[in-house]
């Protein structure tokens, strides 16, 4: 699933700012849309691991969508930010690795 963001929306954007769109830089954020099956799979996987995370629907939150694009360079979902480690797509191995690093 791709999020509609124009090049004009991205003009002048640089590194993500802490707290932008009301999201903290630390912690775990799952950027998703309601029609993305992989987003549901990612959320279920994180819940199954007992991980607390924030779900952000980028189809209704344009600032979060811009934040997601700045972090990942991608407009597709899911995007998972695990304490700064950005994972594009539902990748169990990458999620497990990032979670193991986050626990240290």
Q: What's this entry about, in short?
A:
The chain is α+β, with helices and mostly antiparallel strands and 104 residues long. The protein has helices at 7-10, 37-48, 62-72, 92-102; strands at residues 28-32, 54-57, 79-82, 85-88.
Q: How does this structure look, described?
A:
The structure is a single chain. By secondary structure, the chain is of the alpha+beta class. Mean pLDDT is 84; it is low at 13-25. It is globular. It is 37% helix and 16% strand. The protein has helices spanning 7-10, 37-48, 62-72, 92-102, and strands at 28-32, 54-57, 79-82, 85-88. It contains four helices and four strands. The protein has one domain (26-102): 3-Layer(aba) Sandwich (Glutaredoxin). The chain has a four-stranded mixed beta sheet with strand order 2-1-3-4, with helices on both faces.
Topology at a glance:
Elements (H helix, E strand, L loop, with lengths): L6 H4 L17 E5 L4 H12 L5 E4 L4 H11 L6 E4 L2 E4 L3 H11 L2
Parallel strand pairs: 1-2
Antiparallel strand pairs: 1-3, 3-4
């Amino acid at each position: 699933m791709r999020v509609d963001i124009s090049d004009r929306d991205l003009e002048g954007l640089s590194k993500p700012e802490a707290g932008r769109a009301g999201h903290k830089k630390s912690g775990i954020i799952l950027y998703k849309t309601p029609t993305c099956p992989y987003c549901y799979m990612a959320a279920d996987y994180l819940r199954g691991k007992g991980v607390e995370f924030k779900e952000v629907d980028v189809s209704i939150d344009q600032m979060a969508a811009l934040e997601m694009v700045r972090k990942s360079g991608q407009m597709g979902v899911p995007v998972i930010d695990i304490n700064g480690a950005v994972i594009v797509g539902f990748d169990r191995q990458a999620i497990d690795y990032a979670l193991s690093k986050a626990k240290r």
